[in-house]
Amino acid sequence: MVSLINKVEPPPDGKPDTDRYEVEPVNSPKTRQPLYAPRKKIFPKRASGNFRRFKWLVMLITLGIYYITPWLRWDRGPYAPDQAVLVDLENRRFFFLFIEIWPQEFYYVAGMLVMAGIGLFLVTSTVGRAWCGYACPQTVWVDLFLVVERAIEGDRNARIKLDKAPWTADKVIKRVSKHAIWILIGVATGGAWIFYFADAPTLLAQVVTLEAPAVAYFTIAILTATTYVFGGLLREQVCTYMCPWPRIQGAMLDEHSLTVTYNDWRGEPRSRHAKKAAAEGKSVGDCVDCNACVVVCPMGIDIRDGQQLECITCALCIDACDDVMTKLGKEKGLISYATLSDYNANMALASGGGQVVQPARVRDSATGRLVAAVRRTNWRSIIRPRSVIYFVLLVAIGLVMLTVLSLRSPLAMNVLHDRNPLYVELRDGSIRNGFDVKILNMTPTPRTVVLNLEGLEGGSMSLADGRGEKLESVELALEPDQVLPLRLYVHATPADLDGRQTKFRMIINSNDGIRSAADATFEAPGARR
Ligand code: SF4
Ligand code: SF4
Fold first, then answer.
1. Of 294, 302, 296, 299, residue with least CA distance to 316
2. Each residue of 73-131: pLDDT tens digit?
3. What 3-state DSSP class applies to 347?
């Protein structure tokens, strides 16, 4: 691929034999950047400030939820598991507090996934990549691994020094301890995961006594390895190279979404010797080029280079810079959460519509503070039609799911007509249709139900295992949380039928007043009336 830049003019003293061009190949093996650059180690410095505190809080809550949830108990009576959250693969049930979802009710899970999707749209369109910066498991576990690393090897400078140091006994002990604890965290992570799929105390005892199923050990091993490798070794590379979410999120952001922004309209021109430069009458911005924002960044980037795919918007650079601004007696917010719209307005104000930032245009010369015309991003920025629509959608789907859930019957019935033969003509002249019926008792309580026919004149039933005795109703005992399969014959006389097909219903009424019905069709040779 070549790009045409300038056509070389022919020499004045002679005719060229062909056109010649001044050109550089755009895509050349000599200049082409590799798709994957070798990793440079990042040693993030510990940050402190409001966002760091908020991140600690989110980390504690998310880790707490993950590790503790399988141990929460929920009394569902003597016939159902008492684990609050349980994915019961063996019986194909999902228990979530008072909710019990059966396989045929998977639409609830689909609804929850849709809600999660819209929730992510809402969060991303309003507060940018907040998921990545605060709640993503990769972020949370990397943070946890960094806590261990700092506790053993020290903060940034000590870790850099240790990394460069020769392999002494001290270095070996520190490195082995760090990796051992990381692996233990990985084992705990994999261990917690399997407890969501079985009774946690029972499975723990089985795991410890080596009596658990092989799949449990296999799952722990896989999750231990992925947690250790992703959280301890790959870290920021997972976000940069492996996760599709940064690319998807780029399409969700707009000029009113909050992102972590370096406000160069007040920071530039940056100067390490601001006082001296100011004394010399030079125009200087607020950035003192201290790199405090760079050394805390877990992604190893400089936010002053502008919006970057690698930035997970963890806001630690805001904390670092706010600290610097406070020490310098300047207003916080040189790096801040801001919308592109506000940023553009402030940049236009600072540059007067030109190309060069003039700090004096955004500062009050008397007080040195930012002028009132500077747009400050506040909570109103996130309330706009797009976010309101997402929010309303989220609430509407949630309400519909809650309503459907609260109205769902704990009894259900599935009826399947025999395909062949459609009917049997018996010796007494009556017609018999065969059905496979399944009665679902979707609660952890035993029940007695009575099965009746409705809409089939003169109709009666017999059970396949009931020696052909014809019954008007059938009483059935249902085990808790079970499906009762039934082979049922329905009988009718041709004189009572309207034609080849007669629609009717099978009804069940339980001893505690719950009713369920299923539509069915009675097949016959033809109208005999
Ligand atoms: S640039 Fe700032 S917000 Fe972005 S990842 Fe680095 S520290 Fe976090
Ligand atoms: S922390 Fe603030 S002042 Fe220091 S380099 Fe970063 S933006 Fe500039």
1. 296
2. 999 888 888 999 999 988 888 999 888 888 888 888 899 999 999 999 999 999 989 99
3. helix
The position carrying tokens 């909710």 is 99
Instruction: Pick the atom of ligand 2 nearest to 270's CA.
Output: 8
Tens of pLDDT along 54-85?
999 999 999 999 999 999 999 988 888 899 99
How far from each other are the two terminal CA atoms of the chain, in whole angstroms?
85
Confirm or reject: Cβ of 507 under 6 Å from ligand 2.
no
Report pTM.
Answer: 0.82
Q: Which two tokens stand for residue 413?
A: 């019935």
Question: Strand ranges (DSSP E) for 196-254?
Answer: none
| Distance from residue 254's CA to the centre of ligand 2 (Å) | 26
DSSP state letter for 262: E
CA of 322, nearest ligand number: 2
Extract the runs of DSSP E, i.e. beta strands, from 308-446. Answer: 335-339, 411-417, 424-425, 431-441
Amino acid at the residue 75: D
Q: How far is the CA of 505 from the centre of ligand 2 (A)?
A: 75
Ligand 1 pocket test, pick from 146, 317, 319 with the greatest ligand atom count within 8 Å of Cβ, gives: 317
DSSP 41: P
324 lines ligand 2 (CB under 6 A): yes
Closest CA to 335 of 53, 42, 138, 47: 47
255-307 tens-digit pLDDT: 899 999 999 999 988 888 877 887 887 888 899 999 999 999 999 999 999 88
